Amino acid sequence: MKWLLLVVPIGLCGAGIAWALAGNDPVQPEAPTRVLADCAGATVLGLAALPRLSERLSPSWRLLAVVAGLWAAMEFAMLVFEASEVVGTSARELGGSQFGDYLSEVSGGQIGIAILIGSGAVAGYSAFGFRRPDRATADLVLVFTAVTLALRPITGHMSQQAFGSLLGAVHALAASAWFGVLLALALTVRTRGEWAVLLPRYSRWALVLAATVTLTGIVNGLVRVGGVVELATTGYGRILLAKTVLLAGLLALGWWWRTRWVPVAADHRMDAESSLRRAIFEVLVMAVVFGLAATLAVTA
């Protein structure tokens, strides 16, 4: 469990690598905060999706409430950073009236409010679920989280392209589910028998999600970069190239796991600790990709 805390520094490390690759291209200062927000939102999505993976899995309402609360806090911090960037001042010097004007008059602020409301509602409902688990359903958390995660890519830089909003939203949701469900399994599964049942099911999900992430990412990248040369000559292209290389590594790792880990775990021939170590390793690699992707989204 404690090794999963490395998701935070490793995700931030991915953002740092992307910042270095950006070179002279401007990167907005909220990139590290966005990494944390994206990872938290994906974790909430994964935890809420676990009952869909198996009816025997009950929602971990306490964990959902805590992670969703962190997600909402990061989204609020994102709003502050974005407002200070638009106003042209530091986050510390941002005035209340300036912040209010950003929220009410700028489309980015209005989208940010919607995302903050969505993440806050998920946190509040999860806290209610912790108090009254008999009256709460994880499906509601799953729907609200998915809609909230899709809001930013729908209105991002790809929204100006034909079908760009749809591709961006599908890409973000597939990546969040791929990462979030595996992280949720690592957080909650503790026995050999549970891994034997749940890992093959997740593997089938992961196959579809990884294919979706790859296809939508290729289309989005080609449209945004415009050519092969730009992959080396622009900061955006270099970050995209690094993300693509790591994604290829994840796909190779996934294929290796499907042949070496999943069948053995499904036959009860691997102890829970070994399965957990493999899940944590993949989650940490994904965290680096999330760091690159979050910084890519705020790179000019």
UniProtKB/TrEMBL annotation:
Keyword rRNA-binding applies: no
One of the GO BP terms on file: copper ion transport
One GO CC term on file: plasma membrane
Alphabetical list of Pfam families matching this protein: CopD (PF05425)
Membrane-spanning parts: 111-130, 137-154, 166-190, 202-223, 235-258, 279-298
Name the record gives this protein: CopD family protein
Keyword match Disulfide bond: no
Membrane topology: Multi-pass membrane protein
Residues annotated as domain Copper resistance protein D: 198-296
Species, as recorded: Nocardia huaxiensis
Subcellular location: Cell membrane
Keywords, alphabetical: Cell membrane, Membrane, Transmembrane, Transmembrane helix
